[in-house]
C-alpha cells in the first residue's frame, strides 16, 4: 500500500498510529505531498479527486481518502479490534472519533485563516467560533476520561487531536483546568505507536 | 429518538433519507435548532459539545453527532444493509460517502464565506480552492456512475450532495458535461426517501 502523507498532518498521524497499533506500518510506503486548500497537489489529485492527505492507494490500485475510512480499512485488513463491533462500544468510539476529528477540523480552519489568506481577509468572529467549538469539546473530553476505552479509533483520534493542539496551538494551554485529560494524554503518548509518529 | 435538525442542512437530509430507507423516520422526533459556525445554539450545545446538526439523542439519553455515525447507528438499529459488510463494497461505499461529504464541506465553506463574514473579509482564492475540489469530485462521480451500487450510504450521500448544490449553487450548472451523473440523480430522486426530504 502507498500513503500520500504530510509529516505534520494530524489526520495522517491518525492513520499511522492505527497502522502501528495493527502491525501494518511496514507495509505502507509513504509518498510525499504538498496538499493545500488553495493550491492543490496534482499528483495526489491524479490518484483521488479530493487531493488531500491522507489518501491510501491499495495494492489493487484503488484510492481511498479520509482518515476514518482508511483506519477502518486497515483495521479490517489486520483483523483488528480498533473499531468495536456494532453496539454501545462502537457508537461511543465513533462518536469520540467524530468529536476529536471536529476539533482538528476547527483547528485547521483557524490555521488556514492565519496562513492561507491575506491578513485583511481574516475574520476574528469566525476564528472565535471555531475556538469555542474546540473549547467545548475539550471540556467534554475532560468529563469522559474515566469512561474512555483502551486503544480504539476514538482514543487514537483524541490523542492525535490533542497532539496537534500541542504542535500548532501551544499558546492555547488546553491542559489548564483539564487535569484528567492532560494525564490521560501523557499516559497514552507513551505508546510505541504515538512515539513512532510524534 | 430525537434529532436536532435544520430543514436545509444537507447532512440532516442524509440522516433522514437513511431513516426513511430503513423505515425508522416515524421513530425520530425532530427538534428545531439554530446552529451556526459563529453563533452557537445553546440547546444543541447542552446535548453535545459540537453543537451541530445533525445530532441524534438516543432513547437512553446519549447524544451522537456527525451524519456518518448517525447513519451507521440507524442502519444497525434497523438491521439494514446500507453499510455493506467489510470488503470491497464497504470501502467503495465509504469512500463515495467521504467524497460526497467533502463536496458538502467545501460547498458549506463557500456559503459561510459569503454569509458569515463581512464582504471585506472574503477570500476569492479560498473559495476558488473549495470550488476546484467540488469540480474534481463531480468529474470523478461522472466516471463512477456505471459502477455505483443501488441504495447504500455512499449513493445516499452523493444524492444529498448534488441536491444541496441544486439548492444553494444552482448557478454552478453542475450537470453541464456530466450527463450520466445528471441522469443518475434524476432517477435516484424518484425514491420516496428523497421525495419525503426534498
UniProtKB/TrEMBL annotation, chains A, B:
Q: Cross-referenced InterPro entries, in alphabetical order?
A: Glutathione-S-Trfase_C_sf, Glutathione_S-Trfase_N, GST_Omega/HSP26, Thioredoxin-like_sf
Q: What range(s) does the GST N-terminal domain occupy?
A: 1-82
Cited PROSITE patterns: GST_NTER
Supply the Gene3D superfamilies for this chain: 1.20.1050.10, Glutaredoxin
Q: Which Pfam families match?
A: GST_C_2, GST_N_2
Q: What is this protein called?
A: GST-like protein YibF
Q: Which residues form a coiled coil?
A: none
Domain of life from the UniProt record: Bacteria
Amino acid at each position: 500500500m502507498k500513503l500520500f502523507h504530510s509529516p505534520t498532518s494530524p489526520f495522517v498521524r491518525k492513520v499511522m498510529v492505527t497502522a502501528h497499533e495493527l502491525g501494518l506500518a511496514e507495509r505502507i510506503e509513504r509518498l510525499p505531498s504538498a496538499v493545500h486548500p488553495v493550491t492543490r497537489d496534482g499528483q495526489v489529485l491524479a490518484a483521488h479527486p479530493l487531493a488531500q492527505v491522507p489518501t491510501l492507494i491499495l495494492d489493487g490500485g484503488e484510492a481511498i481518502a479520509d482518515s476514518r475510512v482508511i483506519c477502518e480499512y486497515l483495521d479490517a485488513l489486520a483483523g483488528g479490534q480498533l473499531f468495536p463491533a456494532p453496539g454501545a462500544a462502537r457508537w461511543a468510539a465513533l462518536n469520540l472519533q467524530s468529536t476529536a476529528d471536529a476539533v482538528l477540523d476547527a483547528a485547521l480552519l483557524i490555521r488556514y485563516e492565519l496562513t492561507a489568506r491575506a491578513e485583511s481577509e481574516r475574520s476574528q468572529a469566525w476564528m472565535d467560533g471555531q475556538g469555542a467549538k474546540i473549547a467545548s469539546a475539550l471540556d467534554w473530553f475532560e468529563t469522559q476520561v474515566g469512561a474512555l476505552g483502551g486503544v480504539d479509533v476514538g482514543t487514537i483520534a483524541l490523542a492525535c487531536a490533542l497532539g496537534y493542539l500541542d504542535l500548532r496551538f501551544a499558546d492555547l494551554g488546553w491542559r489548564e483546568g483539564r487535569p484528567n485529560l492532560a494525564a490521560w494524554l501523557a499516559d497514552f503518548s507513551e505508546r510505541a505507536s504515538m512515539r513512532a509518529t510524534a
